C-alpha cells in the first residue's frame, strides 16, 4: 500500500521530467497523453489505497511512510514522509481523479498550440505538487507542496507569456501566495520552538500541552496557518489574484479552481484541526472570512462580463462556504462540498471552454447568446453544472451546501449569523449563475456567434467532450454520498482524522433546507425576469444606482487599495533608497574614498618626473625641514 | 595530504599555463578545463572517503614554517569546509568552461589566473593556521585584481580600485588582529584552544575583513561595480565562491574564537544583516539591469546567511552553510546566464530586453528553474536553507524571523520581475530575432549547476546530515 501511495505521488513527477528532457523528440499529442496517463496512474493507485483502507478496521486506517531524511539541523529532523489516512486518501482521489479528467480535456483544448508540450509538463507538475501537499506527513513538506502548487499555478497562468496581462496576473498570484507562505512559515517556527518537531502525529499529540488551549501562542500558530489558507484559497482579504488568474488557458482555470489549488486552504484547516481547536477564535475567524468572501464574491460576480471570471468569482464564494463549514468544525460537510464543487466547477469551466473554443476564443458574454440551439449538449452539461452550483435538488451541490448550512444552524449565535450569510449567498449564487445561463444560451443567436461559431462533430473535439460527460454525471449524482438523516458517508469516513460537528436535525434542519431552497429558486426567478432575453431592465437598474455598479465593477476597490497601501509605497521606497542612500552614501562617499586614494597616488606618482634637479631640490628641502625639526627639539 | 593536493593542483596548473604562452587558446582552454575537472574529481574522491562524524580537521598536513612564532603550514578539512571546497571546485570548473568557450584574449593567462584563484580559495577554506589563512586570503585578491582590471567592462578601472581599496582596508585590520591574536596566544594554530580569546578589538579586526568581503550592509560599496564590470564568469566566481570565504571566516574564526565579543556584537550584526536583507531585496526589485538584480539579490542572500551565522544555533548554522552552497550555485548560474543574455542582446538593460522565451526553450527552462530556486520556492534547497536560517533567527527573537519573512515576499517580487523582463511579454528592442537558444557549450556549463541544485532540493539532508557537531 505504501509503495502504491508513493507511486501515486511520483508518477506525475516522472512525466514532468520525461517531457522536459525529451524536448521536441516527443510529439505534442504524446506529451499530452503521457501527462494525462501519469495522472491516471495516480488515480488508480489512490483507488487501490482507498479500498485497502476501507477493508481495515475503523481506527487502523492511518499509516506513516518515510523514505529518507529530507532536512535536518541539530535535533530537528524532517523526513520525506507521507501520511496515508482517510483524509489524505479522500483528497488524493479528488485531486488525481478530477485532475485526470482535466488533463485529458487539455489534450483536446490545447491541440495545435505552439508550446503544447510545455503546457502538459506544467499540468503534470501541478498534479504532483498538489499530491505532495495532500499526502505529506509533516508540516514542512506540506508547505513545500503548498509553495510548488503556487509555482505551477504561476507557470500556468502566464503560459501565454506574450500577453502582458497574463504575465502580470501570474506574478500577482505568486506574490499573494508568497505572503501566505511567509505567515505559514512563521507559524511553523513557533511550532518547532514549542514542540520540537513538525510531523503531524507528534505535533497534534503534544500541541495541547506545548501550546496550551487558547494561549497566545496557539492563537499565533493558528493565525499563521490561516494566513496561508486564506491566500491559497483566495479568501478575503488575499483574494485579488484569483479573478486575474483567468488569463491562463481554460483547463488551467478548471484545475486551479475546481479540483485543487484553491481548496487547499480547506484541506489545511481540516488537516490541522487539532491546532485550530486550540484557538477557537481563529477557527471562527476562518468561518467569518468565508462568509464575507461568499457575499463579496457573489456580489461582484453579478456584474462581471467575462464568462471565466464569473465562474472564478463563484469559486471564491463556494470556497467561502467551505470555510464556513470547517470554521465551525463541520469538517465532513466542508470536505463534502469540496468534492462536489470539484465536480461541478470543473464541469462548468470545461463547458465554458467548449463555448470559448467554438466561438474562436471569445470570452465576453455580451457577445454570446442563443447558444442552446447551436451547442445543445454543451448547454445541457452547463445546465447540470449550474443547477448543482445553485444547489437545486437532486444535484450534487444541494446536498453538500445543505450539510454546511444545517451545521451552521446548529452552532449557536455565530452559527446563525453565518447561516444567514449563507442563505443570502445562495440567492446570489443562483442569480449570477443563471444570469450566465440565460445570457449565454437563451434568446436569439447573437450576431457575433452567428459569424464566428464553428462546430465540430461533437460540438468540440472528442477528447474534450468525454471528460465533460463524466463530470456531468458526477455533478448530477455525486451528492448522494451523504443525505441528511439517511447516511453520512463522508463524515464517517473522515471521522478518525477530524470529527465533525453535529448537524442540526428535525425541524431546524427542515427549516434550513427550505430556506436555502427558497433562496436559490428566488435567485433563479430574478435571473429569469432580468436576463431571459436581452432587455433594458439590467441597464435601468445600473443607471439608477451608478455608484453600486461602479463599486462592484471595481471589485470593491481591493486592487486599488493594495496598490496604494503596499505596492506603490514599497516601489517608491526602493527607488528612494537607490537614489538617496545607495548612490550618494554607499557608492559615492565610501566609493569616493577609493577614488580619493587613487587621486592621491596619482599626484604622488606625478612627482616622479625623472628630473634630477627636482629630486635634488626635494632632498635639500627635506634636509632643511629635518634640520629645523632637530634644532627645535634639541 | 589530500588537502594539499586540492590546494596545489590548480596552482600547479596555473603555473604551467603561465609558463606556456606558446599554447594556442584552444589548447590552453582545454588544459585549464582538464585541471579544473581533475580538481573536481579529486574532491569527489576525498568526499567519498571522508569521515563526517569527526570533529578534527582531516586529510591534512602540518609542516613547521617558522618555529619561534609557531607558524606552520597546517591544512585540513572539516566536514563543513569540505562542502565549501566542493562548491569552489564546481564553480571554478563552470567559470573556466565558460571562459574557454567565450574565448578571452590571452586565454592562457586569463585561465591561469582563474585556476590560481581556485587554489587560493581552497587554501583559505583549508588553512588551519592564521598566518597561512592570511596568506591565502591575500592571494585571492591578486588574480581578482587582474581579472577585473584587465578583462572587465568599460568601467573596470574604477571598479577595480574600489574593490581593492575596500578589501585591503578590511584585510589590513585583519592582519593586525591576526598578529595580535597570535602573539597573545603564542601560536597561530587555529585548531588549538589557545587561539580562543575575549578581545573585542581582535574580533572587530577579523569582522572588518569578513564584513567587507561578504559584504555585510553597509560595506558593499564595491559590490555593484565589481559585479557589473567583471567578465560574467569572474562575477560568477566572485559572488558565488569568493563571498563564501567571508561567511566562512565568521563561521570558523570570528564567532567561535571570540565567543564573548561575538555575543556582545550579535544584535548590531543582526540589525545590519536584517537591513541588508531587506535593503538588497528592495534595490534588486528596482535595479535597471540583469546584473544589477543578481548583484543586489546576492547582497540580500549574503546578509541572510549572516543572519543565520549570528543566530549562532544549530538551525542557524546549518541553514547558513546549506545556503552558502545553494547561493554559490545559484549566483554562479545566474551570472553565467546574464553573460549569455548580454552576448545575445549586447545589453543587460531590462527595458530593452523581453520575449526571449519564444523559440528558446532551453534558455527559458534553465533561467526559470534557477530563478524559482533563487527566490526559495518552498520545496527547493534554498527554501530548506532559508527555513533553517529563519528558524534559527526565530529562536533568538521573533522579530528577526518576521523581517526574514518579509524578504521571502520581496525575493519573489524581484526574481519574477527579472524572469519576466527577460523572457516574457513583447520582444525587447535590443533582442535580435536571430538570437540563438543556449548553445550546447553554455548548457554544458550552466546545466550541471542547476542539476546539482535540483538534486539538493530533492535531498538537502545530503549536506545537513553530514555536518558534525564541530560546528555547534
Summarize the structure.
Chain A has 27 helices and 4 strands. By secondary structure, chain A is mainly alpha-helical. Among the domains of chain A are: 329-535, no CATH class; 559-633.
Would you write up a description of this structure?
The complex is a heterodimer of chains A (634) and B (472). Chain A is mainly α and 634 residues long. Among the domains of chain A are: 329-535, no CATH class; 559-633. Chain A has 27 helices and 4 strands. Chain A has helices at residues 2-22, 28-54, 86-109, 116-135, 139-157, 164-195, 200-211, 216-232, 241-244, 250-259, 264-271, 273-276, 280-301, 307-327, 331-358, 371-374, 376-389, 396-408, 412-441, 447-452, 462-477, 489-494, 506-531, 537-544, 546-553, 558-606, 612-633; strands spanning 63-73, 76-84, 482-483, 487-488. In chain A, strands 1-2 form a two-stranded antiparallel sheet. A two-stranded antiparallel ribbon of chain A has the order 3-4. In chain A, strand 1 (63-73) and strand 2 form a beta hairpin. Chain B has 472 residues and is mainly alpha-helical. Chain B has a domain at 265-472. Helix content of chain B is 73%, strand content 3%. Chain B has 18 helices and 2 strands. In chain B, a hairpin with a 4-residue loop joins strand 1 and strand 2 (71-77). Chain B is globular. The two termini of chain B are 26 Å apart.
